[in-house]
Amino acid sequence: MPVQHDRDFRAYTIKKVNALRAQGCDCGGQWMPPAGALRWNDRLFDSALIHAKDMHVHDYFGHFNKRGEDIGRRIEKTGYDWAVVGENLGEGQKTFDQVFKDWIKSDSHCRMLMNPKVNEVAVAKYRKYWVQHFGREHKKS
Questions:
Q1: d(Cα 130, Cα 49) in Å, to the nearest integer?
Q2: Which of 51, 90, 103 is nearest to 73 (CA)?
Q3: What is the C-alpha separation between 112 and 89, in angstroms, rounded?
Q4: Distance between CA atoms of residues 35 and 25, nearest Å
Q5: By the 8 A CB rule, do 118 and 39 touch?
Q6: Region 25-41 average pLDDT
Q7: pLDDT at residue 1 in the model
Q8: Cα-atom radius of gyration of the chain, to the nearest Å?
Q9: What is the 3-state secondary structure (H, E, C) of the chain?
Q10: How far is CA 54 from CA 3, 46, 58, 121, in A?
């Protein structure tokens, strides 16, 4: 199962993330109050999948790719006009439930899951790598 991105996977991940955001969460001793629901964004999915594949192909695990590009630069390449972005990474978990549980246990990942400044999300898995991208685009005039 190298890539998980069908409609059921998207619906399941959104449901899990939004359930957590609706109830609030203790992230390493810091209470994060309930936050608004997120919606799926295909451009965030594209950037997440590209990063997951890149980590596999170039055998690394990190928020910067081998060209030194951070999440902002990588997401811009998909045409996402971001005002706020964030990224959670996972390595080796077999299921979304496993990586989600690990993210909740990690203070920084948990805070990203609960960030009230984002309103869109996508999750991609490629081989052993998980990438979750969060964002909020600039308002269109």
A1: 8
A2: 51
A3: 11
A4: 10
A5: no
A6: 97
A7: 34
A8: 14
A9: CCECCCHHHHHHHHHHHHHHHHHCEEECCEEECCCCCCEECHHHHHHHHHHHHHHHHHCCCCCCCCCCCCHHHHHHCCCCCEEEEEEEEEECCCCHHHHHHHHHHCHHHHHHHCCCCCCEEEEEEECCEEEEEEEEECCCC
A10: 13, 12, 6, 20
What confidence category does residue 141 fall into, taking pLDDT thresholds of 50, 70 and 90? low
Here the tokens at position 15 are: 């449901």
pLDDT category at 50 given cuts 50, 70, 90 is: very high
Q: What is the 3-state secondary structure (H, E, C) of 69-85?
A: CCHHHHHHCCCCCEEEE
Across the chain, mean pLDDT equals 94
Amino acid 2: pLDDT: 38
